[in-house]
Queue: 2 jobs
Job 1
Amino acid sequence: MFSFFKKNTSGQSVTFKISGMHCPSCAMNIDGALEDEVEGVVTSQTNYAKSETIVQIKEGIDVQTLILKIKEIGYTAIEKSKA
């Protein structure tokens, strides 16, 4: 969530359009859930104003896993290239 130290950014980046956020704390909730609860997520950067999340993941992580985690905490995510 707070990347004071650079993490390994090898892998791929996936961008999601997010709906259901009501405030900047919602963005922090998404970042925390993805980084802390999904194995293979390197970083998550959610922008409340843009309604989007950019997730850096390790190779082999299923994008559906990320979408389901976001849905589990109360938001809707659509992979941006598919939006």
Job 2
Amino acid sequence: MRSKSAAAPFGIWMLIFTIVPLAIVAYFAFTDADGQFTLANIREIGTYIGPFWDSIKLGAAATAICLLLAYPIAFIIARSTERVQQTMVMIVMIPMWMNFLLRTYAWMTLLGNNGLINSFFGLFGLGPFKMLNTSGAVVLGMVYNYLPYMILPLYTVMEKIDKSVIEAAHDLGCNNVKTMFKVVVPLSMPGIMSGITMVFVPSISEFVIADILGGGKVLLIGNIIEQEFNQGNNWHLGSGISIVLMIFIFVSMMIGEMKGSGEEASLW
């Protein structure tokens, strides 16, 4: 009884800031301007299949790059001494202390035609290269902003892997490559799936980075939703697209969770 009372504030918080907003979105998604039930807002996603597909591609690319970069970093941190771990984790988290918009706007200074990167290439007679207002710039912004969300869950899982397990794999004849893929990767699968979820979910629904680094030339599904809510004042269509996006993300997470659970179970 006491434990249920302690959980009451969390339940109230979830009700007010999660369940009620989702209920409002669902209401607008399945009604028209007259409040009548309709599926037209859901079917409208076919009109925006291009931005939806681009969101999946760029989000998946950013997630894959984050995983490739974060995995060795997390492994190195996990195998370091306690003091080094604390220092490196702090370094990973420092960018997160700065405002999200400021971090993203900073890349405009770096990637512009007269930015620092092109100025550096200009010293060697190269460029200027068009880096800003491209899909690559949007992916770069996603990787930069969401990389810590991949590193931290991976580090948390890897840090708990018993070193004796790795030593046993070496004793049984595994080299470093086999030990990594036969032992470390399967044991770190929960961290991999958590990291993928924490990066892919915000990446696929991203619109701020696309606005700033894409310059309006890279249109993602998040931009469509934002435009329908703020510019078009069409909450019904915006909610309908949001529902489809949420369903897609939920199904993707469920598939990833089942795959991760299956691989972890096969290890044992």
